[in-house]
Specification:
With 205 residues, this protein is α/β, with parallel strands linked by helices. The radius of gyration is 17 Å and the shape is globular. It starts with 6 loop residues before the first strand and ends in a 13-residue tail after the last strand.
């Protein structure tokens, strides 16, 4: 569904437009976190107390968390490779678990830094690590109803349910990320793309 009119929230409430992340939120970018290494950290993270996240100000509860960013992870080995506590997930991994795990409660319980209680990537979450992308060919139709031309062909960032873009560190560093309003109604199911969000790096990784 195209986003041509005002942003609508629960109860038909008109929501604000997305805006740049505030300075305090930008602190929690990729470089803030040490990368997770299973050879060094598996036992440590599995013993990490579960963080109690209540608002954007509580991102400090993840100060000691590590960043899971392994592009070799597949849907088949998610449960074997990704710790269910003590880690943040990069954008590519967020896309992977959204495809593989259809349980909002579990997503929020295991990775509270990434997902809200509805299993939706948090509106105020800063993009991390590798981006989630797809190749767009001429004739493909984007979220806003635009048809890609041959000149448009290339890699574009994935949007989940038409609301949250998973552009990773490269998109955030390029100043492309805007914080959407919370509780906006889903525009569609699954993943889509927008021609306005062409990937900065024209490669999957």
């Amino acid at each position: 569904m195209a986003q041509n009119g005002p942003r609508i929230g629960k109860g038909g409430r008109i929501l604000r437009e997305p805006k740049p992340p505030r300075k305090g939120l930008n602190k929690f970018k990729t470089s803030f976190y040490q990368l997770y290494d299973p050879a060094l950290h598996r036992q440590t993270v599995m013993n990490t107390p579960r963080a109690k996240f209540k608002s954007v100000r509580n991102y400090n509860v993840f100060n000691e968390y590590l960043l899971y960013s392994d592009p070799t992870t597949t849907e088949a080995d998610i449960h074997a490779k990704i710790p269910k506590r003590g880690v943040r997930l990069d954008d590519l991994t967020v896309a992977l678990v959204l495809r593989a795990i259809d349980c909002p409660k579990s997503l929020n319980e295991w990775w509270p830094g990434e997902f809200d209680v509805n299993g939706m990537p948090k509106a105020e979450r800063i993009p991390l690590g590798h981006a989630a992308k797809r190749w767009v060919s001429a004739g493909d139709v984007d979220l806003d109803g635009n048809v890609a031309t041959e000149a448009d062909e290339g890699y574009y960032y994935l949007w989940w349910k038409g609301l949250q873009v998973l552009m990773g560190k490269e998109g955030h560093d390029a100043g492309m990320y805007m914080v959407r309003p919370s509780w906006e109604l889903d525009q569609q199911t699954g993943f889509s793309f927008k021609l306005t969000h062409r990937a900065v790096v024209q490669a999957l990784l």
